[in-house]
Design brief:
InterPro entries: SP1917_dom_sf, UCP033199. This is DUF2200 domain-containing protein. With about 120 residues, the protein is mainly alpha-helical. The chain has one domain: uncharacterized protein sp1917 domain (Helicase, Ruva Protein, domain 3), CATH 1.10.8. It contains seven helices and two strands, in the order αααααββαα. It has a two-stranded antiparallel sheet with strand order 1-2. α2 runs parallel beside α6 and α3 runs antiparallel to α6.
């Protein structure tokens, strides 16, 4: 199943700042830390702590967020189902990147070991 064009556009326009608190809540509820969340975000995007905060403060869209990112060369190893979509089958690159981030946050919240999450 592939997301519709409307779905892709909605994701592109969504701001990282509105989703970020949900990521924090999700991982902290499962006894993981904000620092671990940032480690996962940094692994995928190459953003440091200050850049993550700046992008939140600027309320950038996911489109801008991922345009500024340098995606980890091992990101292609992120596969599986998230939000009803199989990541490796998503054709829209931005939607795929957002779903990869969602998958990493999900794995963190599920208690996976960091080295497995970071595909090392």
């Amino acid at each position: 199943m592939n997301p519709t064009q409307e779905h892709n556009e909605r994701i592109a326009k969504m701001t990282f700042a509105t989703v970020y608190p949900h990521y924090v809540t999700k991982v902290e509820k499962k006894n993981r830390t904000k620092e671990e969340l940032h480690q996962v975000i940094t692994w995928l995007t190459s953003f440091d702590e200050a850049t993550i905060q700046k992008l939140i403060d600027e309320k950038v869209t996911f489109e801008t967020f991922f345009q500024k990112a340098t995606i980890n060369p091992n990101a292609h190893l992120i596969i599986g189902l998230i939000c009803g979509y199989r990541i490796e089958e998503i054709e829209n690159e931005l939607t795929k990147q957002v779903r990869c981030l969602d998958k990493l946050v999900d794995e963190l919240a599920k208690g996976k070991k960091m080295e497995k999450i970071l595909r090392s």
